[in-house]
Design goal:
- The structure is a single chain.
- The chain has no helices and eleven strands.
- The chain has 113 residues and is mostly beta strands.
- The strands form four sheets. It has a four-stranded antiparallel beta sheet with strand order 1-9-6-7, with no helix packed on it. The chain has a three-stranded antiparallel beta sheet with strand order 8-4-11, with no helix packed on it. Strands 2-3 form a two-stranded antiparallel ribbon.
- The N and C termini lie far apart (49 Å).
- Residues 107-113 have low confidence and may be disordered.
């Protein structure tokens, strides 16, 4: 597998009782596969860039078990991007890393008049 380079997805949005649409600044990822068995590597990371030096810092999250969840800031104000390092073979016959993204970008519709 290849690296999923640092990126920002579109923002999620919610609609309140007054039909005001607001950006939801967080996303999440749920690990479905079994790390170490279904795959190796594939660490999730959040990256930030220092405004003055331009240095990029990656904070890695190592999933340990299926069902592990990571929540992270995903809006432009936070200045963060996220990605995944290269996936390798685990001990299972098939190499597979499956994760589910939460709070992904969606179109908000309302019945407001």
């Amino acid at each position: 597998g290849a690296e999923n380079f640092a990126h920002r997805d579109g923002l999620s949005a919610t609609s309140d009782a007054n039909c005001s649409i607001k950006a939801f600044p967080y996303q999440g990822t749920v690990m479905v596969s079994k790390p170490g068995v279904d795959f190796t590597g594939g660490e999730f990371y959040v990256a930030s860039k220092d405004a003055e030096s331009g240095k990029i810092t990656r904070t890695k999250v190592e999933f340990k078990n299926p069902g592990d969840v990571v929540l992270f800031r995903a809006d432009n104000e936070g200045g963060y991007e996220h990605g995944m390092l290269t996936v390798g073979n685990g001990s299972a016959a098939t190499c597979e890393r499956v994760a589910i993204g939460l709070f992904q970008k969606k179109i908000v519709t309302s019945t407001c008049s």
